[in-house]
Specification:
This protein is an all-alpha fold. It is built from ten helices and no strands. α2 runs antiparallel to α4 and α7 packs antiparallel against α8.
């Protein structure tokens, strides 16, 4: 066990590092599962998601916000996995990581479109928003090219994780199930969402715990210092965001 921890620590780079990487591996899938569960009661398609926002704006805003944060945290989580894969299978680590990370940019783009559509519901009504989204749904954008990269990227990462012995067969298959997670604007929760995110949890949560345990525990003073810094930074971001809003 001590040798495994030492090897794991040696294979992690300075960025994202043990703490950011380990915490991201744990927090990102949890947020994505919470996000999907919050809107599981509503139908999958964009018109139903807009109608759900019209009647339950706080619930839907929380759900889609958790989804975006989870996808953002997948970036350092995937980087951590790529570093571990690349020790034995650098090409699979490179291409799997590249494809998934490019796809994460596409998901961030879609989250921006989701937010805009919700604001149309607020400023006008759900019928106008549904018509607007229906008119531009499926239109070409340069980001569309990235849609399929994340789907195939998860398969490449799963193969790399198995061949490099980072994961066993079961957890590699579980990670590869992210292939079926729908990508696009205003997606709800269906059975494939549950399957894919369950697989992500099976693959990432144990790895996150392993990564966090691969080094020594920080001193309490260090933990408190970082918590204070995080609170101050997040508070400043919220304040600046509020100042940018038109009054």
């Amino acid at each position: 066990m001590i040798q495994e921890r030492s090897a794991l620590k040696d294979n992690l780079g300075n960025f994202p590092g043990r703490w950011l990487g380990g915490l991201s591996l744990i927090i990102s899938p949890i947020l994505l599962v919470i996000s999907s569960m919050l809107r599981i009661q509503f139908n999958f398609f964009f018109s139903d998601q807009l109608a759900a926002y019209d009647t339950n704006p706080n619930l839907m805003l929380t759900s889609f916000s958790f989804f975006l944060i989870g996808m953002i945290l997948l970036f350092p989580a995937v980087l951590t996995l790529v570093q571990l894969i690349s020790v034995e299978k650098p090409r699979l680590g490179l291409w799997g990581g590249l494809l998934v990370i490019l796809g994460l940019f596409a998901r961030a783009f879609h989250s921006g479109a989701d937010h805009f559509a919700f604001q149309v519901v607020r400023s006008t009504n759900v019928e106008v928003a549904t018509q607007l989204v229906g008119d531009f749904y499926g239109m070409f954008h340069i980001v569309n090219i990235l849609n399929f990269s994340i789907l195939f990227g998860w398969i490449v990462l799963a193969i790399g994780a198995y061949l490099s012995n980072v994961f066993g067969l079961f957890r590699s298959i579980a990670l590869g199930m992210m292939f079926v997670l729908a990508i696009g604007i205003l997606k709800g929760t269906n059975m494939t969402t549950i399957i894919s995110l369950s697989g992500l949890c099976m693959a990432f949560l144990p790895l996150g715990i392993q990564v966090l345990k691969s080094g020594t525990m920080p001193k309490l003073k260090t933990v408190l210092l970082y918590l204070i810094i995080i609170v101050l930074v997040v508070s400043s971001w919220l304040l600046m965001s509020e100042m940018e809003r038109p009054h």
